[in-house]
Each structure stands twice: as C-alpha cells, then as structure tokens.
Amino acid sequence: MLIRKPPDIPASEITPLNTYLRRRDLLARGAALAALAAVSSRSTRAALLEAKKSPFSTNETQTRQADATSYNNFYEFGTDKADPAANAGSLKIAPWSVKIDGLVAKPATYTLEDILKPVALEERIYRLRCVEGWSMVIPWIGFPLAELLARVEPLGSAKYVAFETLVRPDEMPGQRGLFQPLPWPYREGLRLDEAMHPLTILATGMYGATLPNQNGAPLRLVVPWKYGFKSIKSIVRISLVEKQPPTTWQALQDEEYGFYSNVNPEVDHPRWSQATERRIGEGSGLFAKRRPTLMFNGYGDQVAQLYAGLDLRANF
Ligand SMILES: Nc1nc2c(c(=O)[nH]1)N[C@H]1C(S)=C(S)[C@@H](COP(=O)(O)O)O[C@H]1N2
Ligand SMILES: [Mo]
Fold it and tell me: DSSP letter at 315?
C-alpha cells in the first residue's frame, strides 16, 4: 500500500502512522480496540490520538481500494470516471487552510494541522451511494464535523452550513478551457442538524492512508445517508448561514437534484429509477448484479428522525 505523507507534517513526525497500520493488523485478528492515527505539530510533542473502529461502521465487504481510487467523480479534474485519478496529481494540497465564517462567534482560518490537532481520528466503514446508481463500501478515516463546528461556536441564527471546494484552474484542468461542466466553486450545503449529526464526518484518509487527491484530499465531507454529490471534496471554506445555501447540482438542474438528496429508493431521478444500485466490483454490463437501494442508504435508524414531518417527495 502506498502511504503518502500527510501534507505539512514533517517525515520525522510520521512514524505513528506506521504504528496505526501495524495495529490495524491486530484489529483484523480480532483485537477490540487498537488503531492509531497520529496528527502532530512541529511545535508541540507528537500527540498520539486513538483512532477506534467506529460502532457506526458497516461490516459489508469493502470495495477494493484500486476501484475506490480509480472510479471517481471530481469534475474539477474532468467528467470521466478515470479523469480524477489521471489528473488530480497536479493539485497542491500543502499548505492547506479552511476558512470558517458566517454566523459563528469565533470565525477562523485554520490550517489543516490546526484542524486535526485536537481531534481523535476514527475509522468509519461507510457506504457511498452515487445518484448515478452505483455504490461502494469505503473505510474512511475522519472525525465528526460537529467537533470542528463546535470550535467556532455557531450562533443561534445559524440554520445551515455551506461548503466550497477550491477554484484553482492552474491545477484543475476541468476549470479551464471552453467546456466547463459546472459553475465553480463546487458548492454543497447541509441543514445545521444534519451537519451536527454524529454520522457526518470530515475525512482525511481512507484504507489506512491519507486521502488520494482524486478522493478529495486533504479534507472532504462524507454524509453516508445522502447521494455522493453531497460529500464535497477538497474543502476550503465552511460558512454558517441563515438561509438554505445554493448548491452546485441544484443550480445546474434543480428539477433533478434537490437540496436534501437523501438516498431514497422511492423518489426516482427524473431520468432513471433509484430503486436499485450496482455495487462497484460486483460485475458490470450484462453481468451486473443489482442490489435494492435502502432508504437513507441503510442509515434510517440513525437519521430518519431528522426528517419527521418533512415531505421527502417535495424535499428530495
Ligand atoms: N468538489 C467536488 N466534490 C465532489 C464531486 C465533484 O465533482 N467535485 N463529485 C461528487 C460526487 S457526484 C460523488 S459520487 C462523490 C464521489 O466520491 P469518491 O470519488 O471519493 O467516491 O464525490 C462528490 N464530491
Ligand atoms: Mo455522485
């Protein structure tokens, strides 16, 4: 497995990642708690943070790492599934900072290192279901978004959270030239209670390593009960706002892509059914096995109460 150095962390401080990987073997052999991921700063002694296997993880078969890192949607690098893996190497992910602004008591621009210093990383094995009708099971490494939001102290007037990916045409071929598939920056949004839900994470890694650029390095959202496009990659700005923020896919086609975009087998996309899905790695073409798509992608026990009283056909 290729282990890349997390951005901005000197090699001398990276040893604990190896510890983490060694302990992952223990986990595989059945040890209850183990995994260790490390984030440390240059100035303070290396802090070792316990990355436990989350109780929120699914025990379904994981998608092959090679598939999860070569079949991607990241339109900043092109619209074909193979484009992000081919082109995302040009993205410079260090240094990286995220501006958190809007309706918060403590707006801040955090470096990636600032963001990671106090958090305990966890491995979360989540399904990712794309609106196009395919799904994967990916072992993410990350931490609840709620922990970061708490640090900036959202004001009572904050009702939604808006996210933006960076605009950097020099490094992102999909952002230059005549044909640009989307308006930039790529934007997404969540209601504040969705953003604060314990299943909503910011991921910094997958498969025991830092995130490959094509999967949204160095920091991306993962919201497992919503279609994949809500899980915005390579985030540079998070804004707490009062009104429902515009999102990229809604701006492009609001008949087809709603704000909520909860995985819902009962609400079809106008051009295709959402009742079933193809699990990547389980055959293709004529031999593709299709699985039933589950309401809220199978996370209904945890999230259905967020939508009590909301008409999910009108609010798709
Ligand atoms: N910035 C940005 N984020 C994005 C996208 C994108 O084009 N740009 N595509 C989305 C879509 S449609 C999906 S299905 C997931 C795919 O994540 P993965 O490539 O890690 O599987 O990323 C989402 N996040
Ligand atoms: Mo998607």
Answer: -
